[in-house]
Amino acid sequence: MTSTAVVIGATGGIGGAIARELKGGGRYDRLVALCRSGNSVDGFEAGTIDVEDEETVQRAAAQVGEADLVIVATGLLHGDGYGPEKTYRSLSEEGLARAFQVNAIGPALVAKHFLPLLRREGRSVFAALSARVGSIADNRLGGWYGYRASKAALNQLIRTLAIEHRRKFPNSLCVALHPGTVDTALSKPFQSNVAEDKLFSAAYAARQLLTVIDGLDPEQTGRIFAWDGQEIEP
């Protein structure tokens, strides 16, 4: 039986590092890297996906077929005319819609088409990168309205997806993961106040996240976990 791992957003900082770790681990017979450009990743079967375009998500799912591990490593913190708002005075309909489209709606559409692909026999995992700032309980600083709210929405979507998915896939997990602050283009403008020991390399974050995934039990589906394996309160 061929085992398959899929990385969506495989040319991004964390997604690329996850892909490299998966390749080096040698645990999966088939590795699939999906991204908007369709660029290949060494050792991976390449494919095109745009989480803002459901038609491409559906086509990518048809390409993949059955899977054991699906990781959604896409996200938007800044760029394309959007940046985290420091005050409510900076809120805009366009900015909020953009954040929700990429950080919540996109992964939800991926789940719609990829959750049915997870293998029924044995353990399988669907994981999406979230963020600690999406925790409502942990919000003590305010700001970053669109990013916080869209990641909170993602966490709720993951929880709801997990409840439904488990009814037919009892050995499957659907979880959200917080990678920490990782030295990538996504976090680059916001690293000045991050302690040196709290700024992780992409390779380190990828290893930690895959270790967390490996240690999870199906009973833990629907939850949010940080890079160190600690559960994050919604």
From TrEMBL:
Where does the UniProt annotation place the signal sequence? none
Which is one Pfam family of this protein? Answer: adh_short_C2
**GO molecular function terms noted in the UniProt entry:** oxidoreductase activity
GO cellular component, alphabetical, reads: cytoplasm
PANTHER family attached to this UniProt entry: NAD(P)-BINDING ROSSMANN-FOLD SUPERFAMILY PROTEIN, SHORT-CHAIN DEHYDROGENASE/REDUCTASE
Q: Which organism is it from?
A: Pacificimonas flava
Native organism taxonomy: Bacteria, Pseudomonadati, Pseudomonadota, Alphaproteobacteria, Sphingomonadales
Question: What's the name of the protein?
Answer: Short-chain dehydrogenase
